[in-house]
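Limitations

Structures in this collection are predictions, not experimental determinations, and the ligand pose is part of the prediction. Treat each record accordingly. The example that follows, with flavin-adenine dinucleotide as the small molecule, is included so readers can see exactly what is and is not provided: the inputs are given verbatim, and the output is the predicted complex.
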Amino acid sequence: SPKWDQSCDVLVVGSGAGAMTAALRAHDLGLQTLVVEKSDRFGGTSAISGGGIWVPCNHRIAAVGGQDSAEEAIRYIRAVTHGEIDDGRIEAYVEHGHRAIEYLEQHSRVRFEAQEAYSDYYPEVDGGKPGYRSMDPLPFDARELGEDFQRLREPSPATLMMGRMTMTMKEARVLLCRGPGWVGLTLKVIWRYWRDLGWRLHSRRDRFLTLGNALIAALRCSLTDRQVPLTLNCRLERLIEENGRVVGAELVHDGCILRVQTRRGVVLGAGGFERNQVMRAQYHPQPSRSDWSATPPYNTGDAIRAGQALGATTALMDHSWWAPTTHVEGEEKQRPLFVERALPGCIMVNSAGQRFVNEAAPYTDIVYAMYENNREGATSVPCWLIFDADFRRKYPCGALLPGYAMPDSRLPKHLHSYFHKADSLGELASKIGIDASGLLRTLDRFNSMAEAGKDQDFKKGDSLFDRYYGDPTVQPNPCLAPLVKAPFYAVKIDAGDIGTKGGLLTDVHARVLRDDNTPIAGLYAIGNTAASMMGRTYPGAGSTIGPAMVFGFRAAEHIHAAG
Ligand code: FAD
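Predicted complex:
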């Protein structure tokens, strides 16, 4: 057996929310735990995310006036996953999810609140809810992190006001459509940022952490409280197996090989393979490009391949947490369009100028529709978001602030290539190379449906979920308005993702399985390193980080129980 450089009970690979939850629970169960992270920042995609978790029956539901039951939650997940996940993971998630989150709140610095109005993504399906199951992390003061703040991955620019000020999800929603109190709220966000005057002299980075940054900072501080070490610039290279059991791992730390013996187990929480072009070409529907992803560039499927090398089986490799994304010149990752598609006054079209999807549908479904409808003469990978001058003035869109705050005449130079603009729809179509007569026909029909407030073709605005990001001041349908006012705009949309969801197949304890369904002793996978328990769907906001954390928690408990 190899000469070990170091040893521990549990090695946790990756520093996203799931990995750190696993480390925290493992430590609390008396296991000596190490966390290693490939990049020079901790937090992964979890840190740049909304930080929301979707947890049925969570302990905060009653506080926001809701109710839930395990039966309803299980019926709902079964229905939206079309019965494809029948191995007990759904039941395990519903049973242990709220327990894991309650544990974190009682024993660490992590805090959540339930979102009363953030509806499940399919609220009309049996067991679906109009809110409560999605939870947001509470803001966190970066001062608690001390020096570690420098090493926390920066938030996504998409989540910042004016590219620098942080907001909570609730605040962002009010500002999105200038809801009641938006002027006061804007001033509050600005004041919060500038009153940190001493710090402003050092850095433009906001110390009022929200969303994924708040969650990751709270987890990191909780690990520091426990003196659980985190090693940056340290990547998993391969797993070391003896007699069918994982006994250690070979890591590369600052260019040097480090062999770590793991007495009890390895938890792989190293994200998916979205940034690996070779794997995308091998597994995904085509075309598929790693630079369409909205995630940081480090999740290259290393841990998935390390598991495969030991005979682990995989599932869902041709699926992703798809999200339509847009390219911004000079940015390291693309920007996802989570909300703007739902707002009134825009449509999505293919190269024939036709609509092909409910623009307000959950982001994962949008990209499924892009692939399903992609054919010669009517290309939908990529497709186009088309909007008019009213939409441009009133709402943000990807990297564009609303025109009232940032008119085209004042746009920074790097955004000039973000969109196309023309005085007529015909001219716009020819600028972006799509069929002009098709686009005109589509808009004729769409505009009359929008006037009537009913989308006969794709039902935009029919679901409660669609309306969550609609503009409530627009009636009768907050997601529909005709596109009539020139100039007209087009933004190119890629078939992007917020992480892949295919990976190592795991069981109810997050153990990695072989082809014959037997577990590989000592090996666990969570988050996007594991094949998702949500199948090909996205039940509600927080469906990726929720399971990552809960199965991280479960993995630690199983390692402890397995002795
Ligand atoms: P990550 O959080 O990416 O962590 C993996 C870590 O492993 C990374 O730090 C990576 O550098 C490291 N790593 C990779 N390879 C190695 C290696 N070989 N050795 C060591 N370390 C390695 N999901 C939700 O549920 N709720 C939301 O609100 C939400 N909002 C989002 C908003 C945005 C803008 C985006 C982009 C995504 C959002 N998502 C959200 C999706 C979610 O963030 C990701 O699916 C999730 O964070 C993935 O978690 P993970 O632990 O698998 O990976």
